[in-house]
Amino acid sequence: MKKLLKSRKALSPVVAAIILIAVTVAVSIAVAAWMGALTFTFMQTEQVSITAMTYSG
Asked: What is the pLDDT of residue 7?
């Protein structure tokens, strides 16, 4: 039984680091896209329409 447990191969540290970096990049892209959409939503400009104007002078 001990030989069976010792013979199991673990995930290579290099592969684990690559997976961790890939997940970090994916989450960063998702957050950046969400923040960009949120920013553009709040930056919409208001339209002002002047319907009447008087001048007394």
From this structure: 52
